[in-house]
């Protein structure tokens, strides 16, 4: 019973913290992205799923006219680590995986800008009992990725259904 109350209290605090951030800091962040990086149409992405200070957005990179996925984190070492690891992992991932367009770790707001890939998480598909995913193909691709990372002596440590993105064509 106490564990449930603790989880509810933690979730309530997290939710309130994210709402306050959206109310008081979002416009500043949006202006910073627009002025500094020519990013327009910034909007929060699944804000109710934000965790551990990480905040995610979708936007358009004006210079290329393409959609991007932006991640910022209140904890500098986490976003710096994600930047470094994303660049290292890019050697072991298939071409369909998102690449970092650019990162800014020296400005007042630390952020990573990825190419946007339309898709849903494996967690979403599992909760929907989805039949339009080619599961044998998907798990074969996942095993190839894990094998490539292993061959590069890389350990991910956070491969979970909520961190695996599946594109509509099952990639």
Question: What topology does this entry show?
Answer:
Layout: H1 2-24, H2 26-37, E1 39-44, E2 54-61, E3 66-73, H3 76-89, E4 100-104, E5 111-115, E6 120-121, H4 122-128, H5 135-151, E7 165-166
Antiparallel strand pairs: 1-2, 2-3, 3-5, 4-5, 6-7
What does this structure look like?
The chain has helices at residues 2-24, 26-37, 76-89, 122-128, 135-151, and strands at 39-44, 54-61, 66-73, 100-104, 111-115, 120-121, 165-166. The protein has 171 residues and is an alpha+beta fold. It starts with a helix and ends in a 5-residue tail after the last strand.
Biggest sheet record: 5 strands, antiparallel
What gyration radius follows from the Cα positions, in whole Å?
Answer: 17 Å
Helix content: 40-55%
**Low-confidence runs of at least 5 consecutive residues:** none
Mean pLDDT over the full residue set: 75
Describe, in short, the structure shown.
This protein has 171 residues and is an alpha+beta fold. The chain has helices at residues 2-24, 26-37, 76-89, 122-128, 135-151; strands spanning 39-44, 54-61, 66-73, 100-104, 111-115, 120-121, 165-166. The protein is globular, with a radius of gyration of 17 Å.
């Amino acid at each position: 019973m106490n564990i449930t109350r603790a989880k509810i209290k933690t979730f309530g605090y997290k939710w309130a913290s994210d709402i306050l951030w959206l109310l008081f800091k979002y416009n500043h962040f949006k202006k910073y992205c627009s002025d500094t990086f020519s990013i327009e149409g910034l909007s929060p992405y699944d804000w109710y799923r934000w965790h551990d200070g990480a905040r995610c957005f979708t936007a358009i990179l004006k210079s290329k006219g393409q959609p991007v996925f932006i991640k910022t984190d209140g904890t500098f070492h986490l976003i710096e680590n994600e930047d470094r690891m994303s660049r290292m992992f890019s050697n072991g991932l298939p071409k369909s995986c998102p690449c970092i367009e650019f990162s800014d770790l020296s400005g007042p707001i630390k952020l990573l800008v990825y190419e946007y890939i339309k898709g849903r998480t494996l967690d979403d598909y599992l909760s929907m009992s989805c039949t339009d995913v080619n599961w044998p193909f998907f798990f074969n691709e996942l095993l190839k990725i894990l094998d490539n990372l292993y061959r590069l002596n890389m350990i991910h440590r956070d491969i979970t259904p909520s961190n695996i993105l599946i594109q509509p064509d099952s990639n």
